[in-house]
Amino acid sequence: MRLTDEQRIDWLRLIRSENIGPRTFRALLNHCGGARAALEALPELARRGGAKRTVAICSREDAERELQACARLGISLVALGEPDYPARLRDVADAPPLLAVRGRLAVLQAPAVAIVGSRNASAAGIRFAELLARGLAEAGLIVVSGLARGIDIAAHRASVAVGTIAVLAGGHDRIYPPEHSALLEQMLEAGAAVSEMPLGWEPRGRDFPRRNRLISGLSLGVVLVEAARRSGSLITARMALEQGREVFAVPGSPLDPRCEGTNGLLKQGATLVTGVEDVLAVVRPMLDRPPESPAAEPPADEGSGGEPAADERARVIALLGPTPVALDDLVRLSGVRAAIVRVVLLELELAGRLERHGNGLVSLIS
């Protein structure tokens, strides 16, 4: 399916509205049946969730301005379910409803492997990342990374001629770090840059973990080259596991703190990588198993009819607190149907009172 111009405006307005992320977007479409209906329902849903003020909804004028600015910069806003949307990313639970793409759209459908690692990388780590990226590119795979200093940019540089994908933490007009802007322009000739953030968005610390789920989501697997114990690359590895991706790690010296994270992953069962063949041996069998065809739009929940009664809403909220809890536990303990529990959680999220965690866990914001 392809969105009409009007539908694309509605989708953009919805995802740019307050307290709405990818999971909430899908929940709203399931509950309301479409983006326009969801926009109309937002104020009442947020009120029922306990919002203390009117939820901010993106205006049509702002959405049209963003679309016009994207057109001027050569950016395509590709919707989940459209043919150009990355095939593997669409199956991720929190895939962006709209992905801003600059460069070659076709490269997003090619099989890809991510290479990530330390920003403060050693010369040996950079050299190995380059060898690995070049070998993967020669084998017909696209290299995905985050355009960061160190390992990321080494992987991009080594595969730029064949095609590489940069996943941005900010808007397309706010490249970080700025010194990589020139290489990014070269990358667009055979590859692409993608972002879920609006134009003008300056990346903040919390935006990088959010970006990392896209790096893993676009890929068959993620290779870590030098990652410290508290490295952001380990977040990418965790997200890759949650998404059912392969995790590879390059061993390093036990004396180098930049290798504590990768060595730890190897102890936990990550595939050891000492050369490109170690990666190819795992991913080659996957190339014959393409992702399933996407649905035209996130399907409606057949059991979502009806609104929560006051006592049902109260029972669900009473079970929530600062400790993350699973939906199944809320259903079991409250005695409320799963579809109704989802609506209560949707109301709370729109009111800014709910936080979503990995593995489908949720908690109440004090």
Mean pLDDT: 93
Helix content: 40-55%
Give a short account of the largest sheet. 9 strands, mixed
Please report which band the strand proportion falls in: under 5%, 5-15%, 15-25%, 25-35%, 35-45% or over 45%: 5-15%
Per the CATH scheme, the topology name of the largest domain is Rossmann fold
Reading the helices and strands in chain order gives: HHHHEEEHEHEHEHEHEHEHHEHHEE
Quaternary assembly: single chain
CA gyration radius, whole angstroms: 21 Å
In short:
This protein is α/β, with parallel strands linked by helices and about 375 residues long. The chain has helices spanning about 5-15, 20-30, 35-50, 60-70, 125-140, 150-160, 180-190, 205-215, 230-240, 260-265, 275-285, 310-320, 325-335, 340-350; strands at about 75-80, 100-105, 110-115, 140-145, 165, 190-195, 220-225, 245-250, 270, 325, 355, 360-365.
How would you characterize this protein structure?
With 366 residues, this protein is an alpha/beta fold. Mean pLDDT is 93; it is low at 292-304. It is built from 14 helices and 12 strands. The chain is globular, with a radius of gyration of 21 Å. Strand 5 (164-167), helix 7 and strand 6 form a beta-alpha-beta unit. It has 3 domains: 5-85, no CATH class; 102-288, Rossmann fold (3-Layer(aba) Sandwich), CATH 3.40.50.450; 310-364, Arc Repressor Mutant, subunit A.
List the helices and strands and how they pair.
Elements: H1 5-15, H2 22-32, H3 35-48, H4 60-72, E1 75-79, E2 98-103, E3 112-117, H5 123-138, E4 142-145, H6 151-159, E5 164-167, H7 181-190, E6 192-195, H8 207-217, E7 221-225, H9 232-242, E8 246-249, H10 260-267, E9 271-272, H11 276-283, H12 310-319, E10 325-326, H13 327-334, H14 338-350, E11 354-356, E12 361-364
Parallel strand pairs: 3-4, 3-7, 4-5, 5-6, 7-8, 8-9
Antiparallel strand pairs: 1-2, 2-6, 10-12, 11-12
Helix pairs in contact: 1-3, 1-4, 2-3, 2-14, 3-14, 5-6, 8-9, 12-13
